[in-house]
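Structure in, sequence out. Go:
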């Protein structure tokens, strides 16, 4: 029997054997297995700008507070359509340059929300830029630090057509004759964040969350949404609340209010449906709203529109799935002509 108290050579040898065995198990075997990982067929490689944004993401140590992994447990189903797969990280294995391997951006802390699918959850450039400049301008409860050094304060007369000007509420920036514009680093970082979308699997299958199957957003939540269709309140909270806020009042100077809005309360919901499907560009007054036609079904658009038309004091007729389908078909016909 080995006596490590007296036989020091055996102690060192045993420690070496354990070290080598653990190194093989923890590092070499997983690295070898990763070589067999292949990309999802529809997965797109990062563009040059998105790669630069990844470098900014790493240099600002965003992974210290944000993860990029959806675990196969029920509490994670709010971050993505499915649990993450090894193939989701295929392109993240590419080297940054000759000397440096691509960094791990999976993260281990969720001080802030997971970013796996943030490009789909929040596709607005303006929102991301405002959030980086001052997170409290769009999320009042946010504890994220401001990244104001990624922006420049310039005279209004010095703004050019190429500059991206932020629509900051006056309570966060109120200097007459001055504007806040985004640096190229900020634009690159936003491009990278918007690229973070879960790729659809080729066979359409979706790995289920454990222990229960993925919930469908249905049921009576006490908000006037009865029946078995999509739940407008849940969809609004997942899709719209970041800009238009839970109280429907929006962000002054950045995102318009829905409470009391003429578009929302109009007897004819056509304009509201078109805005949801096609987006809206009102740069003179507010930030640009991205289109959601590719992300939301007719039933989901109808549920969101109905929720908006019956909340915060609004009182307008409900929107049906058929209403949305007619307008979507009309838009598609116009585009195809």
């Amino acid at each position: 029997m080995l006596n490590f108290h007296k036989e020091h050579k055996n102690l060192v040898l045993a420690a070496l054997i354990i070290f080598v065995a653990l190194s093989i198990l923890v590092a070499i075997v997983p690295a070898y297995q990763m070589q067999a990982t292949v990309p999802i067929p529809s997965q797109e490689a990062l563009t040059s700008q998105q790669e630069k944004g990844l470098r900014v993401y790493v240099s600002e140590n965003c992974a210290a507070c944000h993860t990029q992994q959806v675990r196969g447990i029920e509490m994670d189903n709010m971050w993505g359509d499915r649990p993450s797969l090894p193939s989701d990280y295929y392109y993240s294995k590419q080297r940054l340059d000759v000397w440096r391997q691509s960094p791990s951006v999976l993260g281990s802390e969720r001080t802030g929300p997971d970013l796996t699918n943030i490009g789909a959850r929040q596709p607005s450039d303006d929102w991301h830029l405002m959030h980086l400049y001052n997170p409290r301008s769009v999320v009042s409860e946010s504890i994220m630090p401001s990244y104001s050094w990624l922006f420049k304060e310039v005279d209004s007369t010095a703004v050019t057509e190429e500059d991206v000007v932020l629509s900051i509420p006056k309570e966060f920036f109120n200097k007459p004759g001055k504007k806040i514009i985004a640096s190229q680093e900020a634009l690159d970082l936003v491009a990278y964040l918007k690229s973070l979308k879960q790729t659809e699997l080729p066979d359409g299958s979706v790995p289920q969350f454990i222990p229960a199957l993925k919930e469908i957003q249905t049921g009576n939540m006490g908000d006037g949404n009865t029946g078995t269709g999509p739940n407008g309140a849940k969809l609004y909270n997942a899709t719209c609340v970041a800009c238009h806020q839970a109280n429907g009042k929006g962000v002054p100077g950045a995102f318009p209010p829905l409470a009391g809005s003429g578009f929302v309360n109009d007897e004819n919901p056509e304009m509201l449906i078109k805005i949801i499907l096609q987006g809206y560009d009102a740069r003179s007054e507010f930030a640009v709203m991205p289109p959601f036609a590719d992300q939301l079904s007719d039933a989901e658009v109808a549920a969101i529109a109905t929720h908006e038309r019956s909340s915060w004091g609004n009182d307008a007729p409900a929107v049906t799935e058929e209403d949305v389908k007619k307008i979507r078909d009309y838009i598609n016909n116009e585009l195809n002509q």
